[in-house]
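Hey,
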Amino acid sequence: MASSKRSPKQIFESLTAAITKKPPFVHGAVSLPPTSTALYFGATDAGRLDLLSPQKKQLEQLLAACSPATFGMNKEDVLDEEYRKAGKLDAENFAFNFDVMNSEITTQITNVLLQGRSDPTFVPELYKLNVYGKDGFFKPHKDTPRSEVMFGSLVLVLPTPHEGGQLMLRHEGDEWTFDSAEILSEQPSPSIAFIAFFSDVEHEVLPVKSGHRITISYNLYSKMDDPFTKVVHVPSPIQLAVEESLRGVLDSKVLRRGGFIGFGLSHEYPLRAGGRLPSTLKGTDEMVRQACEKLKLRVMITLLYEAGPDDGSFTHVMFLTYPDILAEGELQAEGGQIHEPLLEMRGANPLLVKYTEEDGFDFKKSPTPEEPLEAWCVTPKMKNNVSSLYQAYGNESTTNYLYGRLHLLALVGPVGLRETAKDDKEDP
C-alpha cells in the first residue's frame, strides 16, 4: 500500500494539508417574491415602505420610527454612536412577509454552512431590523451567541438605494467584502441580498455614503431534522481529501494498539462551566467530523486540560463536559500536581497528547501497555482555550488558573480493527 511506504510524519503532514480553510459564510441574492413587496413598521402608527419603488418620505418615516441601535458588551446593551450609528426596530415592531425556510437561502445555508448534513437542520429566529442612513456604520465586532445551539446569523439587505455600507468579514487572518449595494444593482429585478455567517466571524459595517441600507437579521439555531425531510449530503472536495488522508493513517502502522487522532477546532463555540460541550460543529470542523464518521470512527468533542505528572506518563486530562472546577472547592494539589485531583472528578481520563506540528514530535509506534492511550493531534489552534479558576491547597490556599482546549477526537482501534463506531442497528 502507498501509505506503508510513507513515514508517519509524511502521513500526518498529508492529513494536516487536507484540512484547508473554507470561507465561513455564504451569500447571494434572491428575487423579491410577489408577497414580499412591502415592509410594515411602527409600534403604534403603522407605516409602509414600498420595496418596488421606495420613496424618500417612506424611508424617512422608517428611520424616525427606529430607536438608536445598541450593541452587546459584557452581557449588557450599550449605546455608543462612536462605535455604532444605526437605527433599530425590534421584531415585534415590524412585519415583512418573507419565508426564509421556503427560499433558496435555506438550501445555501444547509449546503455551505452545515455541509449538507442529513441529520441537523436550522431554525431562523427573527431578531431585528436595522437602518443605516448616511454615515451610519458599525465597528468590528462578533455576534453574541444567545444559546449553546446558536451557530450563526443571517442578514437580509432590502432593495433600497444606497452606496457604501459594505460588510467586512474577518476570520483566521482572512478578510472578505460583501457589497450589498453592488449585488442589488446587478439583479435584473427587485431582489434581496443575503449573507449568512458563523457567529465567531468578526464583521464590520463600513460607513454608508448615501441612501439607506436596511437589513433584517435572524439568529440561526441548529435543530434535529425531521426524518421525512432528510437532506442528501454530497461530500465536499475538502471532506474527500480529509477522508483519503485519514485512510492513509488507518492503513499505516501508527497508533499500533489504538488511540486517538485529534483535531484542534478552528471555530469558536460558546461554553458554560458545568455544561455540555458543543454538539453542532461549524465549517471545516464539521467536515472533519463527517470524514471520521464516514470511516466508522467514533468521534467525540473533548476538553483537554494540560495537566500531567512530572514523569511524563500522560500530559492532559480529558473531559467530555466543561467541568465547573471552582464548584469543587479547594483542590488538594500538593506540589503543583493538579492532575491528581482532576482525575478524581467525574468523567476525567488521562491522555498522552502529542501535537504533530511541534518540533521534535516523537512518532512512537508501539507504546507500552502501561501507558494511557495516545492522542496524535493535528492543526492545534489557539482558539477555544478556556481558563478554569480553582483554589489550590498546598502549604497555603492560592487561586490558580488551569488552561484547556477544545478538540475533536476520533477513536482509532488497533491495527486490523480500526473501526470504532457502533453500527446503528446494534443495541446501545
